[in-house]
Queue: 4 jobs
Job 1
Amino acid sequence: MSATRRPTVGLDFGTSTTSVASPRGVVPIGTDESWMPSVVGYGDVSIVAGEEALELDPSQLVRSIKRAITDNRTFVRVDTPTGIRDVRADDLIVALLREAADRAAARGQDSSGGRAVQLGCPAMWDGRQRTRLVELARRAGLAVSLASLVDEPVAAGIAWLARREVRTPQRLLVFDMGGGTLDIAVLNVGKDVSVLAALGVAEAGDALDELIAEDLDNALGASGVDVDSLSAPRRARGRLRDAAREAKIGLSTMEEHVVVLPRRLFGISDLWYTREQLNAVFAPQLDRAELYVEAALRAAQLTGHVPGTASDILRTPFEELAAAVDVVLLSGGMSQVPYVAQRLRELFPLPTAIEVAATPPESAVVLGLANAARYGRINMYRPAFDILLEWNHGRESRTVYHAYTPLVETRQIARGGDIRYERNGTELSLPPTGKGKLKVVSHSGHRVRATLGVRSLDGFPVALNEEKFEFAIYPNGRISLTDGSGTHDGHIADWNLSGT
Amino acid sequence: MTERSRGKALAGRFAGDPVAAVCHVLRRAAAPLTATDIKQALQDGGVAKADVDRVWPRVQRKLAAHDEVLVAGRTYRWSVVPKAVTATQALELLGEARIPAGDKALLVDVVRAALTHQPENGKHAEDSSDAEDSSDAEDEARRRQSAIDAVRALAELASEAEELAVNEARPEALIHRLRARVKRSGLEPIDRAGDETTFDRRRHKPIDGAIRDGARVLVVRPGYVWKAPTEEVLIAKAVVEE
């Protein structure tokens, strides 16, 4: 895939923090950290974003504004100069992105047109969510299109890929555990990066701090200290929550951590907490994470050109799926908890390497975004094109396939049988007769090479028939169309659907 | 070449490079082949079934990424169309006589896309001088951040030490916490204050005067080695006395 000579800038609009990078590395945009907090709120006169917003009263600010897109929320409630009201989340996101873009420009990363901007987005976002982010980024002055979006786990894979020469294609599993979500993606990398499967779940690090705090509470109980009976139990619990965060960080490098407590408040001066204890409270969360890893590997079988039905894939032993993975990549802040790597090491066979996507792992996404222009990207899981059916000289149309709709739903795999994305004439309310044609609209900036029979999919003539019309895309790239004239089979050519 | 010698050649090729052998089979095939077809062709060429099955998962992945193998559904086909073919290349290829029918539709599609697609504002790649112009600001931001990160580590250490002192932490707890904190910055201690050890001029510094190697000494202050990603730097030797 051809490389671009335009300088690129990567912008990672994360749930907790927003970061910028150039191909040379992270470009610091925070007032004191390399990142800017993804916090936005209403000051006395205008919307403020970043560190300044953190100084507002909690009722005046919104944390994790990105979740408004994930949850498809239009409004968020916030205290404004004109009182508490529901304000458009989009306005707040634009302010945040504009602030990040301005700071980046001041550090030599102009994102208004001179540079190719690559924006990250969760792999689980659909076309509408992606379009919303792109439109907001444009309002913020960033020169972006849908082709500028890179799935976050893909970016993490690229961060790893950019540091080495890959001679033979490799299969990667990206395990991206951050504060808010766990994203798992299965990629094939070589000259291009192909997404075979990607799923994201609200299962991540925040919960661990609470669990450690509870565990410390129990450990105190075992030492004869009942927190509820202390003179200031609320203050004591606040201390334990802080101690829990410290213990999690401390145990990333040490086997044991000493929690030092104010004797006046707790009656004892310290409590030793071990990595083993932390692992025990973290284990149920990682048990669930392993199930998601398995689901992602099974979904990847469908897109990875491995013939078979869902039933075959359900029957494939996990060991066989795991053995096909060359490298497990750790990304996100929670990857620094050693138990994550330990569990994945136990899950995968020895030839599979377990590596961090980048150092530090929480910078993997933004570093990958800054290097994304060097690689073609193919999303076989959520193809980056629309397929329209037009008739009446283009005056009427239906969307047969919406870009970024997953071709494989996890529940389809669980049900077994033939797995495919399909739409029929009744669902699309097609006319009973007439002539139409298919139109392919790529959102990646690159053409879609697909055929039906010996003809190109784009422009393929369709004999309209509401009853007979059926269109299907299979995860391995096969396409099938039944219309008034019969059934036509075709394929998407080696999934060469996007890239730069 | 006879069938027999052809078979030997394929088996030999397979032994050297299984992917090359499969590519050879695909190049010679008149139509797209399924995995079963390919495996059968290899066996017909004298390769043992067990050998084919053993390497097939690896070969399959390489085929999926191969520049000249087109994977469509369950079939594999040799294609002369490069994956990143430009419109000009497509036109040239269409002009060649021996283009397989299956490739023609793809090439036509490339040319059509090029004719209908307008280049983005006619912009071309920028000169690298632009990157140089911006690199000063970028470098300056990084230098500032490095300085902040170093000072922050110091501030956090001071803050933690003060908290531990006020909470009357026991010495072993205090030392454990401080060592854990600096370890996160890659610092490994040399010895422990109060311990006895043997003098080693490479790791120890006398608090006063000179000490011969091998003498028994008392550690006054530990030293530190910084384990950076690419090297080890002796930041401070442990201070000792006889």
Job 2
Amino acid sequence: MIWLGIDTANTPLSVAIVKDGTVLAEVNSSMAVNHSLRAMSTIEELFATVQLQPKEIDAIAVSEGPGSYTGVRIGVTIAKTLAWTLKKPLVGVSSLKTLAANAFYFDGAICPIVDARRNNVYAGLYEYEDGHLNAIKEDGHFAIEDLLDSLKEYERPVLYIGKDVAMHEVAIREKMGENAIIAPFPLQLPRASSLIHMAQQSEREENIHAFTPEYRRIAEAEANWLMQQRKDKASE
Amino acid sequence: MTTDIYILGIETSCDETAASIIKNGHEIVSNIVASQIESQKRFGGVVPEIASRHHVEQITLVIEEALHVAGLEPADLNAVAVTEGPGLVGALLIGINAAKAFAFANGLPIIGVHHIAGHIYANQLMQQMEFPLLALIVSGGHTELVYMKDHGSFELIGETRDDAAGEAYDKVARVLGLPYPGGPQIDKLALASDDAVDFPRAWLEPDSYDFSFSGLKSAVINYKHNIEQKGGTIVPEHVAAGFQKSVIEVLTAKTVRAAKQYDVKQVIAAGGVAANKGLRASLDAAFEQENIPFYVPPISFCTDNAAMIAAAGTPMYMAGVRGDMSMNGRPGMQLTSWNE
Ligand SMILES: [Zn+2]
């Protein structure tokens, strides 16, 4: 069984090909380069490296978000187009779960964090149980203060993971004290091999055409429009 | 022996998700367009983030439908042509990345097409283009006069210095309180009107083929303010007719003058505003008088579609123009010749 994994949900890019539980090749980078320049060309290089043809893969895993709207869309568009035209199964995995998967042997709660600007983050809370990574708090978009308040009630050590953790490290340490554990740099980037590992334990998408990113946030214009609708209704 | 050439076109530069297959550069085998207009209406215009979200939902569906209607497999295709720019960058990226993934998976070459070249080549779907020709491109994002001495040779001889014609239509429609999209509404009001307010024409320098519509838009706004300040109300039909008259007169006169100066064999109009009935009638009449063949595609090929991208991509394919897997969206892409 040969898997292709793609993560372009945030600044880092990760692409991997895994065959029968072996990583044949993986490319990871965290340069602020437009994913449209690098994603498909990296996939092309990777196939050349492992000397496989696109049609030889058996399944595709993609990071479905949350994250940068454009970044998530590039990965999802590539993955769903490949899966549809090659007639292969597609599995979407949370970008946050992919990050959390880096902390395989951590005994405790894992909080993957992706910065969402203006003191907001995308975050979730995960825990390993019998080799399975379970969500104990649903992925979402939070004000960093609110997220930390909710984690404080948890009263246990939490591992913070993701390259954007650095931007919020002061706030995390201040609020969580002893219970704050910051993952070291080798674990901070999402890995497409971890993504594939998680995908192998997940359900495949029933309808590839209908597969869309998990934005975890409605578009601003839509939010304003909904607010206006509510106001109009109230004033009727 | 001649073999047929099948090109898959993909277009997502604004709010239409489109895919089409064209045979030999002019024969429409399939042409699928998924419009977002119903969704975007809520916002009174195209919201880029919403447009991109819709494109992701539709992109593989429209490509599949284009293949299905054509009765073709990916292996039957010669290449994939996709709009590389200009347009909304987030929207362009969906079509481009789907095109790259599709081309890579099926071992096909990929060709990046300029959106305006696409609009011009929409005419190729109706009748053979004859050179030299002059193209008037009028849409929500463009007002341009392009001279072509051959396939793939584009010389920009005039363009708008401020608003595009379609943009002016949308803004004036908003002033008149008309629903989005405003262009067709103004056209309808103008055609039904028995009188027209006299608005200025922006001729610019005597020898210029450039356009300017922001002054006209301001004139409409001032006219409305003045009347309302005096406690009166405007007659929307008369305003629409006056505005449309000013736009059409300038577009027609400059296109005719350029066609004569460049001594072209054919004049074509393209772009969403070329669907405007008043403009079509005016250009038709003017070129009939000048005895220069004038063509404008049916309305469905004036608005954004992928057939035009495949049509423009075909001569590029034959000329050996190729893109690669690093193709990026180019929101400000310039129309440059690919045959020189
Ligand atoms: Zn257009």
Job 3
Amino acid sequence: MMTLLIALLLGLFIGTLRSTPQKVTDMRHTLLKGGIVFLIFTMGVSIGTNPEIIHNLKSVGSRAFFLALSSTLGALLFAFFTEKYLRQIARKEHENDQNHHG
Amino acid sequence: MTKTIMVSLFLGIALGYGHILPPSFTNHLHVFTDCALFIAVFSVGMDLGCNRNTLQEIRQWGWKILLLPLSAMVGSIVLSSMVSPLLKIPMRESAAIVSGFGWYSLAGAMLTHLAGPYLGTTAFLANLLREIFTFFSVEWIYPRFGGWATVALGGATSMDTTLGLISETSEGRLNTLSLTSGVLHSLAVPIFIPLWIKMP
């Protein structure tokens, strides 16, 4: 956890510095893509080399699958409608303000 | 990107399962994972520093930003509780399992300790699958459902493992939302899981 905070702050520091050449900051996209792909690859390897995960997939796999699916979907829908609702309120407030001034 | 992600995950699983990779790599796998995570989070940090889109969302939402992780947590628990009778799991157990919010190592360990290996294993897998679903769907969800839904997918992982992908997909717009939501989800995990299990 501490390492991640250091990574974030270090990146933030280098990104904010005006003396950092743009060539360096432009590299962040390539770096990010590389990091993501390699991260997922190592995740795959850790699943593949762990016989317990493959074994457990047979016994509790379907329950885990549907719980994962419903929790992901629930988070998605609730957050989606909350954002939609808040945007509607903001729009109405904005319109009211304009009417007052108009 | 989604295709690349799928290929690298399945390639990793296949190479790991077939013991094709040298032991010097697989024995120190956690070091490589940490390095990859460090690189991804470092790049997001750099993006936070020099991308003008970054603070846009925080300025726009203010304190209301807290409603994102809150609604995501409630949504996870409500929908999985609705499914739990079909899976023949007591509601509080399904709520405890999904309260890992994608943090599979902690959820698995905590539930093994509190409620035995069966729930622990289910929690580990369910939360691992949630992280994988997030990796596979972020690119598809963002243009169709918007920022909040995209960040909500990741749960606790939106501050570390899925942060990079969310940042990349949204061109930095969701950096701060993603970090905030991930931190709050992560703080909730060790509180929620025992709460559900100890509920009478």
Job 4
Amino acid sequence: MTDVTDTNLHFHQELESLEHDVLSMVDRAEQMVEMAVEAVCIGDVALAAQVIKLDDDIDRIHLDVHGHWTKLMARFQPLGSDLRKMTVLLQLNQTFERMGDQCVNIAKVTRLNEGLPRVERMVEQIREMGDLVRPMIRTASEAYVRHDLEEARLLPDMDSPVDRLNANMYKEIVAVGSNPQMLEWASKILMVARALERIGDQAVDFAEQTAYLITGARTEFIKPGLNRSADDSPI
Amino acid sequence: MNHEQGDGLTTDIDTTSLESATETALAEEAIRVAKAAETVPRADQPLIFDVGKLTVYYGTFRAVKDVDMDIRQNQITALIGPSGCGKSTVLRCFNRMNDLIETARVEGKVEYHGVDLYGERVDPVEVRRRIGMVFQKPNPFPKSIYENIVYGPKIAGWKGNYDDLVEETLTKAALWDEVKDKLKESGMALSGGQQQRLCIARAIATSPDVVLMDEPCSSLDPIATLKIEELMLELKKDYTIVIVTHNMQQAARISDQTAFFSVRVDEQGQRTGYLVEYSQTDEIFTSPGQKLTEDYITGRFG
């Protein structure tokens, strides 16, 4: 068979449009991570407010995608790779919306920590986590677009240092000592680390969805050493 | 009425040759299963039909070639594919309906409970009693509802309580409550969906163990279609069902296994149907193994 005619062209165009909308969320989320980490690290409340505003866009797209998705399922009842893509897009719609929420959580700490004394070593670790998490989102996104299974499989290894830095934050709290204001600041920064760790997990989930889309088999990527389940964190 | 199976199909059977044939068939089956373990659907269910290298000609026209497939007990097996892919031809081989077409010729193996369905001593009438068929358009006899049900058993010489048979059969076909007060009225007076359920009732009245359905819902509205689909899911507890359908969603909704057929065109321009993929329905509609299947179920077909 040489010439393949798409007898389902209308659906495939709609599916492409849905996919475009979902991927536009991850582009925004990546940008929001950068802005939120910057805002909290330098204490820029105005920048933090921009992050919160950007999340409104993600929330709007999230609702639009959900509505569009439901209509497509009702009208076309897709099968095969189309069905897999639909299930993946529904999952990613949720994942990216949560990424946005985590960025908002980070941004909100900026105002809460305003005027409190800082621990520079912890700020540097937050920056480092941000610098690790953003390439994870980018890599997962590129793996999806290119249908590159090998690239998707890179994510668990990329996530390991993020988990280590998050775990290390608890030790930093102990090192802060007994200054109540500094402790208050540090406890909020702990929330920031936790939010970045969750975003890292969400990027791994993104890659797992990509693997499912390509292979048709559901697999959970195993990370060396650490369990990335939500239950293993003290927060 | 009790089901009779196996050697009861033949009129005068040589038991020795049957045993030997069965052993050979079992050995062949074992090899085949070992070779293609991953592609044999629900191999744990008893084997009803064992089809190997099935090729059907109408005159010089080769309609379908080299079909290998198992049909397993109490399963719904759906045959799907584009027009001309041979799916209805294959279905008709399961109860020798192709015998009624003078130019039809069947090659290869079609074994039913280990017996060659096309063996010389096999009685085609008995075959069709055990392997009933429901067609695309409801075709009740122009007789009363009651007569539609008892017609087959009467011809088969069944001695029993016909009133009970009618009630039991129509109940199984989910039609009893709708027609119990008008059993003497013509079957032709029923709605399309009811007529089709009457035809299903007629097919199961002779206590078959297989019911073949050739696009049974294609002339019905969506509600009547859903009723037939619900009925099929009930009937599979007692029968083995093989259905040809053009409606992929229908195959996805009701079947346990799905066989996807396609058409190949040779250098002379002759079109021949063949089996592309046979797998669990859940797999075939979410992660088919063949690109051709994937293209077909996602609407990319040329």
